[in-house]
Design brief:
The mean pLDDT is 94. This protein is of the alpha+beta class and 54 residues long. Bound molecules: zinc ion (2 copies).
Protein backbone atom coordinates (compact mmCIF):
# COMPACT_ATOMS: atom_id res chain seq x y z
CA UNK A 1 0.00 0.00 0.00
CA UNK A 2 1.03 3.59 -0.43
CA UNK A 3 2.45 5.38 2.55
CA UNK A 4 1.55 8.94 1.77
CA UNK A 5 0.80 11.57 4.40
CA UNK A 6 -2.88 12.45 4.15
CA UNK A 7 -2.19 16.06 5.01
CA UNK A 8 0.84 17.11 2.97
CA UNK A 9 1.25 14.24 0.53
CA UNK A 10 4.81 13.41 1.49
CA UNK A 11 5.96 9.81 1.19
CA UNK A 12 6.46 8.60 4.75
CA UNK A 13 7.84 5.19 3.80
CA UNK A 14 11.40 6.12 4.70
CA UNK A 15 10.52 8.16 7.75
CA UNK A 16 11.08 6.89 11.22
CA UNK A 17 8.06 8.47 12.78
CA UNK A 18 4.56 8.65 11.39
CA UNK A 19 1.09 7.60 12.45
CA UNK A 20 -1.37 5.44 10.61
CA UNK A 21 -4.95 4.92 11.68
CA UNK A 22 -8.41 4.21 10.36
CA UNK A 23 -10.76 7.05 9.64
CA UNK A 24 -12.70 7.80 12.84
CA UNK A 25 -15.79 8.57 10.83
CA UNK A 26 -16.22 5.63 8.46
CA UNK A 27 -13.61 3.19 9.74
CA UNK A 28 -12.73 2.32 6.14
CA UNK A 29 -10.28 4.95 5.02
CA UNK A 30 -6.72 4.86 6.16
CA UNK A 31 -5.21 8.09 7.40
CA UNK A 32 -1.48 8.55 7.44
CA UNK A 33 0.22 11.51 8.98
CA UNK A 34 3.86 12.36 8.95
CA UNK A 35 5.58 13.55 12.08
CA UNK A 36 5.44 17.16 11.00
CA UNK A 37 1.73 17.19 10.26
CA UNK A 38 0.99 15.42 13.50
CA UNK A 39 2.98 17.95 15.43
CA UNK A 40 1.33 20.86 13.66
CA UNK A 41 -2.11 19.23 13.89
CA UNK A 42 -2.72 19.81 10.23
CA UNK A 43 -6.13 18.77 8.93
CA UNK A 44 -6.50 15.53 7.00
CA UNK A 45 -9.17 14.23 4.71
CA UNK A 46 -10.45 10.71 4.36
CA UNK A 47 -10.38 9.39 0.80
CA UNK A 48 -13.40 7.21 1.38
CA UNK A 49 -15.97 9.47 3.08
CA UNK A 50 -14.32 12.89 2.73
CA UNK A 51 -14.36 13.34 6.47
CA UNK A 52 -12.04 16.14 7.51
CA UNK A 53 -10.53 16.59 10.88
CA UNK A 54 -7.64 16.36 13.19
ZN1 LIG B 1 2.53 15.45 6.32
ZN1 LIG C 1 -13.71 8.05 6.26
Amino acid sequence: MKLICSSCGINVAGQEEFVIFKCPNCGEGTIIRCRKCKKLSRPYKCDVCNFEGP
